[in-house]
Design a protein that fits this description.
alpha+beta, 8 helices, globular
């Protein structure tokens, strides 16, 4: 097995793109990242490839394992064709020595196997942060109810968007109801200017939020789904996800991809009613 560490995102893109595309929806995170890095149009914050860890493990048959980490985020892995090669995993772990790996987020079986081997090798432990499921959609259920009107988030929303964004992060990342109070407008104006986030209005009042994340060749990620507690159970999340999913399909994408927290049966039920079908389970694990 050969461990190859990359410093050039374009070379990494060239070597791994076709491999990752074998399971496009499953590889939403690594594919979206290398496409973005290869384009080189956005180098803000963690998006600058100069700070990324990019590696492959290969044998005489080609790449067996692909790894990418965009600090401070977890490492993401893909075992080619989802065939886990223990020798390839061991080779990667050897190559990662003396590197700070906060955790792993990837397909469940590979995540568990890598975490057990990595923590055993490094004398540490790991814990599960989130059990996830990856879904994809190729057609929106035509019978779904869609109350409200969807529009792009814009600068006039700065009076409430930062608070919704922090509330979403608190719930989605930390599983909490307490949130950080926004102190600066700049990070939120940057998100607004990306023109990837949408608001659902009912009678002119913002009631829910959702948007797009990583963009791939034929698929696009859907994320940032948030409805304030006082507007829930009214069909708003269903409506906005259905509407922006349909919008993506009309723009030419053949599928939409999203992650869900399996601890939230409501959201999993909502997405399936819209037309999303399970692709695989994923784990977000943290090393300690």
């Amino acid at each position: 097995m050969q461990f190859k560490l990359y410093t050039d995102v374009h070379e990494f893109y060239k070597d791994t793109y076709d491999v990752l595309m074998r399971h496009e929806a499953q590889n939403l995170i690594p594919l979206g990242n290398i496409i973005m890095g290869h384009a080189g149009e956005d180098k803000t914050d963690w998006r600058d490839p100069v700070n990324w860890l990019m590696a492959t493990i290969s044998d005489d048959k080609g790449i067996q394992l692909t790894a990418i980490m965009t600090p401070p985020h977890n490492i993401t892995l893909y075992a080619t064709d989802n065939n886990i090669n223990p020798e390839a995993v061991s080779c990667l772990i050897d190559g990662l020595k003396d590197r700070d790996i906060p955790g792993v987020t990837t397909e469940k079986t590979l995540a568990e196997y890598f975490a057990k081997e990595y923590t055993l090798s490094n004398g540490i432990t790991f814990k599960t942060v989130m059990n996830q499921r990856i879904y994809e959609l190729t057609a929106v259920n035509p019978g779904i109810q869609k109350p409200g009107i969807v529009r792009l988030l814009d600068n006039k929303d700065i009076h409430f968007f930062p608070y919704w964004a922090e509330a979403f992060n608190a719930a989605a990342i930390y599983g909490k109801t307490e949130m950080s109070i926004p102190q600066e407008a700049a990070p939120y104006l940057y998100r607004i200017e990306s023109k990837k986030l949408y608001i659902l209005e009912d009678n002119g009042i913002p009631v829910s939020m959702a948007g797009y994340t990583r963009v791939m060749q034929t698929a696009i990620g859907v994320a940032f789904v948030y409805t304030p507690p006082y507007e829930r159970s009214k069909g708003y999340a269903t409506s906005i996800v259905a509407q922006i999913s349909q919008l993506a399909l009309e723009k030419g994408f053949t599928k939409c991809v999203l992650y869900t927290d399996l601890a939230n049966p409501t959201s999993n039920s909502i997405y399936q009613k819209i037309g999303y079908t399970p692709v695989c389970d994923s784990l977000q694990l943290q090393f300690e």
